[in-house]
Amino acid sequence: MIKMVFTLLAALVLSACGASPNAAPARSSESAERPQATTTAASTADIEGDFRTNFGETNWGMAVTGFSFKDGNLHVSAQIDASDKATAEKIQRGVVNLIRTGGPYAVGPINWVIVEDGTGVVVTQQKV
Predict the structure, then answer these.
(1) Where is the signal peptide (predicted)?
(2) What is this structure's pTM?
C-alpha cells in the first residue's frame, strides 16, 4: 500500500508539471546537473527508498487528493481541515524534499509548494 502511494504521488507531481515519467529533468543555470530520469524497477525502488528516508512511514500521503502546476507554483490539494497545519506541514515538507532530491520528479521550475485544503484555502506554503 505504501509503495502504491509513493508511486502515485511521484506520478501526480510529474503530471501536474506536464512531464512524463521518462522525461529528462529541467535544467537551469542556477541548478546543479540532475540525473536523467529512468523508468526501471530500480528507479521505482529508489523512489520508495527516498520516501522512506525523507518522510518515514506516515499516512499524510493518503490525504493528498491532487496536484496542479501554474506559474512556477505546485499546488497540492489535500483532504484536510484548513486548521490542520501539522498535516499540511508534513505534506509540504514531503513534497519539497521530493523535488529537491531530483530524479524523475525534478521537472520544471517549481518555485513554491502550496498546500491547500479541499476548498482551495491555502494552509501552508514554502519556497523551494
Answers:
(1) 1-19
(2) 0.57
| pLDDT tens digits in sequence order for the chain, 128 residues long | 445 545 556 665 655 555 544 544 444 444 456 555 555 555 677 777 766 666 655 567 788 999 998 888 999 999 999 999 999 999 999 888 888 877 665 556 888 999 999 999 999 999 98
Query: What is the CATH number that goes with domain 44-127?
Result: 3.30.300
What ranges do the domains of the chain cover? 44-127
**Whole-number Å distance between alpha carbons of 4 and 62:** 10
Strand partners, 69: 74
Amino acid (one-letter) located at 38 = T
Contact 104, 37 (CB under 8 A): yes
Contact 103, 48 (CB under 8 A): no
| Sign of the four-CA dihedral 6, 79, 20, 8 | positive
